[in-house]
Description:
By secondary structure, this protein is an alpha/beta fold. It folds into two domains: 3-221, Rossmann fold; 228-290, no CATH class. The chain has nine helices and twelve strands. The chain has helices spanning 30-41, 52-55, 105-119, 149-154, 168-178, 200-214, 221-239, 242-259, 277-290, and strands at residues 3-5, 16-22, 45-50, 64-68, 71-76, 81-86, 92-99, 123-132, 142-146, 183-191, 271-272, 275-276. The chain has an eight-stranded mixed β-sheet with strand order 1-3-6-7-2-8-10-9, sandwiched between helices. The chain is globular, with a radius of gyration of 20 Å.
Amino acid sequence: xxxxxxxxxxxxxxxxxxxxxxxxxxxxxxxxxxxxxxxxxxxxxxxxxxxxxxxxxxxxxxxxxxxxxxxxxxxxxxxxxxxxxxxxxxxxxxxxxxxxxxxxxxxxxxxxxxxxxxxxxxxxxxxxxxxxxxxxxxxxxxxxxxxxxxxxxxxxxxxxxxxxxxxxxxxxxxxxxxxxxxxxxxxxxxxxxxxxxxxxxxxxxxxxxxxxxxxxxxxxxxxxxxxxxxxxxxxxxxxxxxxxxxxxxxxxxxxxxxxxxxxxxxxxxxxxxxxxxxxxxxxxxxxxxxxx
Length: 292
């Protein structure tokens, strides 16, 4: 066994499992922000921890050494942790959080699946976010991945057909599905020009997706407040540049056409006129740094 339990809760009632393990695609840090909000709002406490030396390459994820006047006071190690809390209506939630394993994926997936079965997990979602040609003036849309035909039939999230490198969540989808635990990935779209900075709107969309998929009730009040401030800052940046305004309008047209089921109008590519997504991202970052 590579998992150490702090305690085994005896009164869990069909808990849901939410997984976010950092290291794979998380544009705008949306999945991390949503997970932090879950941990705080659900008052989650550590339930179990996985063995670091089995799964973590500390040459790639070195511990943080905290120095005080030259004295090495503590080493802050990264852990893969299972925490337990409850949502606003008292539903049990297990949150798997920490770094994505660097090693022994098959072993980790089996051990997390066994833990989910032991805890009586009823269903599971893992979180992520990806850059997309979409405007910040519209809500972040959600897409899904799953091995379950039933989930595909019952949820209205976007779907894609493509070959893409998989994260640990994709392996969990198959393992938990084979253990009769319905599992999906919920992925939020983040405007490509804002993908390299924190993007709270996508985090809020992920929390709303957990409500739709797992019936979790999470307010995310602080995130929603931050989302409004973030929108205002981006609005101000775009308003000060005619090229940005043109790009935004084209993205809005494409986005609204897609919602109206007009597939002949595709999302705009990440380069518009003379300004590229990378250039705009750099300008957005400079703008936000200049405005705290």
